[in-house]
Amino acid sequence: MHETVLQQFRIVFNAVKTHFQQVERKAGVGRAQIWALSVIGEQPGIGVSDLAAALNVRQPTASIIVRNLSQHGFVQAGREGPDRRTVQLHITAEGRKVLRRAPGPFSGVLPQALQALDPAALGLLNQGLSQLIALLDADVRAATTPLSSLSTSD
Predict the structure, then answer these.
(1) Collapsing DSSP states into helix, strand and coil, what is residue 102?
(2) What is the pLDDT along the chain (154 residues), one digit of tens a residue?
């Protein structure tokens, strides 16, 4: 049984890796950046903290993504409104072009597939993965590391 489960993990990881490669090849930027662009496009004026929450990453990670997007001219960051302490993000025309080239789903194939699972199957998967994480004595801080930033080399 464990061989079958190991093969299933390989299939899942390969599907995620293939999607990341397709996104980067077609859009010219990574999947995390595409997801951030889509959120900023859907929520003009969003702040970095709210973007981090939407992407389920830590605020410093979101800041790095925003900095990269800004450097490429895909996002504009400005201080508007009554609270000049916070930065509001807006997608640029160039950023919208990148989104049009990117294959969906913008949030990634794994989050979309997990959302499509029925609640009972998702609960069992959660329970099993929790046990696996405990057996691995894995660092739970990795939960907020985007999959696209993990090594995809074989």
Answers:
(1) coil
(2) 888 888 998 999 888 888 888 888 888 888 889 989 999 999 999 999 999 999 888 899 999 999 999 999 999 988 876 666 788 999 999 999 999 988 878 777 888 899 999 999 999 999 999 999 999 998 887 777 766 665 544 4
pTM reported for the whole predicted model: 0.72
CATH 1.10.10.10 applies to domain 2-146? yes
Give one DSSP letter per residue of 30-46, joined into a string.
Answer: -HHHHHHHHHHHHSTTB
Any idea where the domains of the chain sit in the sequence? 2-146
- Kindly write down the DSSP assignment for every residue of 57-101, as one continuous string: S-HHHHHHHHHHHHHTTSEEEE--SS-TTS-EEEE-HHHHHHHHH
